């Protein structure tokens, strides 16, 4: 309740503010405070805000005013915000003291121990193909509007200077990458790397021309409004936040993922797998960057998540999509999307915040989310994945056996052969044969030559007759000029035709009735058809996944949204139908109803009308069987086979991760108990904080043990939940035997790197 109260100042209290804090009140002023807010109220707001990020300081203060029948005033929000900053700073300093006494304040300690299921390795375990899987992505929702001085003239287009006051306040955390760290990979340093001038045939840059996220031309107009345009986030496969970077006055530049990868390579070393919605493009960027040699040395792999992967072209999917990548199991690498779906609730309360408060809110949100959401759901995550894998292995083999019987297949190794053949076939389609390209160019130049010849004849007739029928000198000169231009155009086209005839060794010029003319004309029409189909395919799939992301793809709005919001698709569909009708024989045209039902790239049946007729393309010279992988039944069987392979890998990986978690739970609880007992002997107050930390970490232990027991009772479980012995024996490790001694000094100034920046008055 809001009330006036008298506070007792003891002789041991050096300051008035210290006396207030000791009695559970945070003052709103460091000198002669007259207003304070109780710790209980501040803690209530902190927890409530973290659980419901929409709740702002102003809304909470208004709620308190309503409860106390007091009129709301703006200064009340200011007072509350000041006290709340002090309260969070105290909590952060206490947390740093706890981590320091537990010997867990060394560089990258938190990062190296962020996720028990990823990092708590034990002895005598089989090595994993990917030592750790993580996902990176940007989020544009957590923007921050820069405060500018009011315009002094009527020209609102001129940006005014920022009116924000400089501040020395920082948020001490290794979770946030500093702007200086990120700017080491800025555009001026990596300009050559960002240009699309690399090898066009490189197998790792198939979608380079599709994805332009990493260049900020589109977002430059927003720089005048927003300072931080969002965040760039890295999460482990289980959802724990690894690092965060503010996207400052820019879009998704290459410096943000490069900075994240550099940090993670330094912390975790070799065999990392990185999921990114434009992982194919980023692989090229990473390889060409100064970090490329180290990434290759440490066998860093760039992948594409399952959700975004279906919007990439077919060949890119075969190389980067999770379904076809050995060692990934059933991981979708889309954890960032799930994290952003929750963190977006924070956007409204930080849009107009200062730089410090913007960073403070984001950091405290992800710290709380890791501790109370992600860690709580860790064993549930493992249980659900185990059930999913067992479900696939339960029904998949029988369905696959039936599919193989229907297709006349006896050996599962053929599916790997099919995948290799499809990859080889698509790689062959990346670039048309040179002779075929020259023939089509020659055919087009012949058409141009006939057109320029007709134009030359017409202009010559006009010029020769103008002198007889027209006495106007200017008209005669115009006719003469037009004739000269037509003659020049004809000569230029003729020279091109003759040069192509020389390259193609053509002794007799093609005529419209010749077989060569007719065949090449069909090739040109087929190429136009293929390109129209490619464009339509890309637009439909991209739109479908955009609407799926908004949970609208399974609703009746999908058709209307697709048609109303995508005029480009209408144009592409019209061009496709025109190209289809131009073929001989004409191909089937598409209607809107058919197009919107297409769900994946395979539904477009791109291979059906390719330059080579794959229904007649023989994959074994001594075989008379057509390519079964080109048929819908063959593709379903192949996908089911690889899904079963990934499920087996998932079981193997989960068996390892489950033991890691079981071992961590035992070791962490034992370690914190020992530390608490040792600290109790010389600092009971600090020991109490360690006890609170232990209770916070251990509040889900019973839940985890129940889930682990439930996993062990699954029919088909092949692992063990018996804890093992951790390989991490360093300072602060859960399995180590702590020997904590009283610090030489308790003065805060002795530990500046631990305590962080001083509070501003």
TrEMBL record:
One Pfam family, short name: KDZ
Feature: compositional bias, Polar residues: 158-171, 734-747
Signal peptide: none
Superkingdom of the source species: Eukaryota
Location of region: Disordered: 149-174, 721-761
Name of the protein this chain belongs to: CxC1-like cysteine cluster associated with KDZ transposases domain-containing protein
Protein species of origin: Piloderma croceum (strain F 1598)
